[in-house]
Amino acid sequence: MSSLNVICPHCLKVNKIPQKESYSKANCGSCKNSLLDTTPIEANEENIDHILVNSDIPVIIDFWAPWCGPCKMFAPIFNQTAQKYPLKALFVKVNTEALPNLGARFQIRSIPTLVVFKNGLEKKRNSGALDPLRLSNFINEFI
Hints:
This protein has helices at residues 48-54, 69-82, 100-105, 132-140; strands at 3-7, 14-18, 41-42, 59-64, 90-95, 113-118, 121-127.
């Protein structure tokens, strides 16, 4: 059976788990919290590379800012959609107002912008908010 490296959404430690179609239980070997928690991770300059390089599942990053109306409307859609993908995709948020260097590094020109990374490499991006179906379709390309 092959295995996957996944990032714990609580402590950000890398966990090697068996690759399965679905999981009823999976806990972090370090902090013991559930790896099935789909709450998006708040990334910053210190942890973004660790997340991107060590995740074998696709990483979906929402680049946003608190003053952005479409970002506020999209946030619940992003969070609800994340619940459908435990250990299938890792959902991450980057506040470009608080972290302008990350916005510049990833060449974010408008927000919200979604970027999919797989094996540490950018695979696709979308500028603008998506409805739940379009977001799921966007993610499913990389699962």
